[in-house]
Design a protein that fits this description.
The complex is a heterodimer of chains A (511) and B (335). By secondary structure, chain A is an alpha/beta fold. Chain A contains 17 helices and 24 strands. In chain A, the strands form six sheets. A six-stranded mixed beta sheet of chain A has the order 6-9-10-3-11-12, sandwiched between helices. In chain A, strands 18-21-22-15-23-24 form a six-stranded mixed beta sheet, with helices on both faces. In chain A, strand 1 and strand 2 form a beta hairpin. Chain A is globular. The two termini of chain A are 45 Å apart. Helix content of chain B is 74%, strand content 1%. Chain B contains 14 helices and two strands; from the N terminus they run αααααβαβαααααααα. In chain B, helix 2 packs across helix 7, helix 3 runs parallel beside helix 5 and helix 7 runs antiparallel to helix 10. The chains are: A alpha/beta (511), B mainly alpha (335). Chains A and B meet through helix 2, helix 3 and strand 8 of A and helix 8 and helix 9 of B.
Chain lengths: 511, 335
């Protein structure tokens, strides 16, 4: 890039207050034409707030926005679209039962007389998709296509409205590593055509790989603007968190003892009746972490649900602490000493409209001291909540605040506080750090290791290779519902694991 | 592969209804050969009995497609039946009476929209409020002994009305019955082929997605619910000015609720609802016919139950997979 590129978007002195917090404090932000600008920060740092101000979803309390040097008023998303701004939200804004075409044209429909002109729209979509390498079938229905393709639909939706500025909010959170690479190719094609991209993320590796410039935010303020050449991951992490961060997890060698969890020949169906876990067997000992590595959608969800009692099985045996356990009976498992960090914390882990205090006793509410017979003991529940909030550093205004009001990282801390504060012998953690920021990831990793060192057997299921490699003592790779190989963690490399996860058999690797 | 998946989707959604339709057609053919005049009479009666159900179902589905559950159809119909009747008693003008009746339905629709969109009250409660208002007001102001000045009468459409089997049923009807049939296709067109329809469905499925591309969620919900109220009103006016010619307390007799069953049976689509309404109309017509014939040794109360029993069976899930609009019943809050 040459040095006198024009600035397409500029935010000056933006301040946005919400009751009790200043989400953006005098924020300046500039986007140059044709650049990929990484906007980095932890959850709650104000990245999304800033972009929602620019996209017209929030009205700022102070500050101005300039587009190509001209001051503009953006009050609604409609205004933003008119100014050439497109946004791909973290949670896609697509109607699941609509076709790709219907979703793309919604709000900017092409018509012939009074009727929609779907054929014309389809041609335009096909043209856009071939121009930018965004392969989609315009007639496909959204709920039938994978998340990666849905994301392409979102990008085409912005391009269809002739967006010159594209805001991508945490676009890789839902993608497999391969899909993320495809997305990066698309982003480069877009910038080659003069589109400017704001890339919101908290993943350091991604901004280092793809961004031209990086703006780092912390607690509502911009703490620095840099480039990948001027800094490294460690430096970015420190800017982001405001203190030194341990990216590599330090851990002692495991001291595995007796077998806590013994799973034999487990076969599980998904809700459509297809067999997605085939004849899986493994053991987890106390004091060790068994990592299950695999690309999302290879049966991990169903496996975890079966092992936590949430899903019935076709066949198999589940021995916990030398006792045979029934399936589909979560309470038996919990009382036997199982704890669980579910994959989808908002749907499976928490009752969002409940206060934090109630979520902290979801597994124990019916027992003393939280209940006396049929009656709840509110004082005990509150006391428990105050203790756990303190001990696990949950950032909440109080124990009676509704859980849905907390940030993702703090919601996860509520789950961790609930699950780790009980006397347990087994922890099943499924994607425990998905969508969390560096600080929270560091925290949760250290807590999981602490559990291991206290002699808990840990089953860690994760699609993040880095996470598996840094935490697990043994690694089992799952591919299409089968455990294709199990290795000691110190005897396998990242690239070997990657190949196993992609379905190469052991023989192909020549090992 | 594309064709086979869409065929599968179609069969999964419509299979049960198609099979049922074919069975009904076979039965009609059989009875037509046996006794043409009675069969034609039953068919014609079925179409007319179906009219208020079709109109009620259209009201329900344009509301629900935009995300608002309308359980007050019964009340909207009853109020419109009463207002249309009173207007006719006073003015004697049928057109004015019909329009006033529809207007009263629309007004109750506006009330429902205000409660559920602006005040964000639970929509079931909002609808129940409307039903109570309508039953209370019409019951209170009802006077015995009033009769209408004239009634809407059938207009045969020339030679078309002489077609065997279907001629009498489809082409020799009074105006509201014709309107109902036209509305089925009009609503189908608007819902699936126009800009308004696309936006309506989007708002009913995923209002935030619609909002982020600049669609006014509140406006669409208001307009649909008000128009729905007018359509339900037309169904109410049908009862007083086309079918009976007088008003009685609670004369809708649960048709507003049956209309909701019809809409669900028709999977929230206009043409499906029409088919379902005809089936219910047929049940009513057969029930009347059996009572007239008077040869069966079943107490008439049991025969009279037929349409309602059918409702229960249908709603108990014989209809196969059906999926309501995802966002229905949930008030939309802007960020």
């Amino acid at each position: 890039m040459n040095s006198n590129e024009s600035i397409v978007l500029e935010a000056r002195h933006v301040t946005k207050r919400f009751p009790g917090v200043v989400a953006n404090k005098d924020v300046d932000f500039t986007l140059k034409k044709g650049e990929i600008h990484g906007l980095l920060g932890e959850n709650g740092a104000g990245k999304s707030t800033l972009m929602n101000v620019i996209y017209g979803l929030y009205t700022p309390d102070e500050g101005e926005i300039y587009i190509e040097g001209e001051k503009v008023q953006i009050n609604t998303p409609h205004d933003a679209i008119d100014h050439g701004i497109g946004m791909v939200h973290q949670h896609f804004m697509l109607v699941p039962v609509f076709s790709v075409t219907e979703n793309i044209i919604l709000g900017s429909e092409t018509t012939k007389g009074t009727s929609l002109d779907l054929d014309k729209a389809r041609k335009q979509i096909e043209q856009l998709s071939s121009e930018f390498g965004l392969e989609v079938d315009p007639k496909a229905v959204i709920e039938d296509i994978p998340v990666g393709v849905q994301q392409r639909v979102e990008i085409i939706k912005a391009l269809y409205r002739e967006a010159k500025i594209l805001v991508l909010d945490e676009p890789t959170a839902v993608l497999t590593p391969q899909e993320a690479d495809d997305l990066f190719d698309v982003m480069h094609k877009l910038t080659d055509q003069g589109v400017s991209i704001v890339f919101i993320t908290h993943k350091l590796r991604e901004v280092m790989d793809i961004a031209d410039r990086i703006t780092v935010m912390r607690q509502g303020e911009v703490v620095g603007i840099t480039t990948p050449q001027e800094t490294d991951k460690q430096g970015l992490a420190e800017m982001m968190v405001g203190r030194e961060v341990i990216l590599e997890v330090e851990k002692e060698p495991a001291k595995p003892e007796r077998v806590i969890m013994d799973v034999k020949n487990l076969t599980v169906n998904n809700e459509r009746g297809l067999e997605v876990v085939h004849d899986v067997s493994f053991q987890v000992r106390s004091g060790e972490i068994l990592g299950i590595a695999g690309v999302q959608g290879n049966g991990q969800t169903e496996l975890a649900e079966a092992l936590t009692g949430l899903r019935g099985v076709v066949s198999g045996e589940y021995i916990f602490n030398s006792k045979r356990m029934p399936f589909e009976n979560p309470r038996r498992l919990i009382e036997a000493g199982m704890s669980h960090i579910p994959e989808d914390r908002q749907r499976r882990g928490l009752v969002l409209p409940y206060p934090v205090a109630d979520n902290l006793v979801l597994c124990t509410y019916y027992k003393s001291p939280f209940a006396n017979g049929l009656q709840r003991n509110r004082d005990a529940v509150l006391k428990n909540a105050n203790q756990l909030i303190e001990r696990f550093d949950v950032r909440t205004p109080g124990p009676l605040v509704l859980t849905e009001k907390l940030s993702g990282g703090n919601q996860q801390k509520v789950i961790v506080a609930r699950e780790f504060s009980r006397p347990v012998e087994l922890l099943i953690a499924n994607q425990p750090t998905r969508g969390l920021d560096v600080g929270s990831i560091e925290y949760i990793h250290s807590r999981i290791l602490e559990m291991r060192d206290q002699g808990v057997a840990v089953l860690l299921i994760s699609a993040e290779l880095d996470e598996i490699l840094s935490l697990a003592d043994r690694i089992a790779v799952i591919y299409q519902g089968r455990i294709v190989d199990t290795r000691e963690a110190d005897q396998v490399t990242k690239s070997e694991l990657g190949l196993l996860m992609a379905g190469s058999s052991v023989d192909d690797l020549g090992l | 592969m594309h064709i086979s998946t869409s065929l599968k989707r179609f069969l999964r959604q419509w299979g049960a209804l198609v099979v049922l339709g074919v069975l009904v057609l076979v039965a009609i053919g059989y009875y037509y050969v046996k006794d043409p005049s009675i069969t034609e009479a039953v068919l014609a009666s079925a179409v007319r009995q179906a009219t208020p159900l079709v109109l009620g179902a259209m009201c329900g589905l344009i509301g629900e497609r935009s995300g608002i559950i309308n359980i007050g159809i019964e009340g909207q119909m009853l109020m419109a039946a009463f207002i249309g009747f009173l207007a006719n008693v006073w003015t004697g003008n049928l057109l004015v009476s019909v329009l006033l009746g529809m207007g009263s339905g629309a007004l109750l629709g506006l009330l429902l929209a205000f409660m559920s969109v602006t005040l964000k009250i639970d929509q079931i409660i909002g609808g129940t409020v409307i039903n109570i208002i309508a039953t209370g007001l019409t019951g209170y102001f009802y006077q015995v002994g009033l009769t209408t000045k004239g009634k809407l009468s059938p207009i045969p459409l020339g030679k078309l009305a002489e077609i065997p089997v279907i001629g009498r049923a489809l082409f020799n009807n009074p105006p509201i019955t014709y309107t109902a049939i036209i509305l089925v296709f009009l609503v189908h067109y608007v819902l699936f082929s126009t800009r308004w329809g696309l936006r309506t469905r989007a708002v009913g499925e995923h209002p935030r997605a619609a909002d982020t591309v600049g669609v006014n969620v509140y406006l669409i919900r208001y307009v649909n619910v008000v128009i729905g109220g007018a359509v339900a009103g037309l169904g109410g006016v049908f009862l007083t000015l086309e079918a009976v010619g007088s008003f009685e307390r609670v004369m809708t007799n649960g048709r507003g609720f049956v209309a909701l069953a019809v809409m669900i049976f028709g999977k929230w689509t206009p043409i499906g609802s029409w088919g379902a309404a005809l089936l219910f109309g047929m049940a009513s017509a057969i029930q009347t016919q059996i009572q007239f014939a008077g040869q069966v040794e079943i107490p008439h109360q049991f025969i009279g139950m037929l349409p309602y029993v059918l409702t229960i069976i249908v709603l108990a899930g014989v209809v196969g997979r059906s999926r309501p609009p995802a966002a229905e019943g949930i008030p939309y809050e802007k960020e």
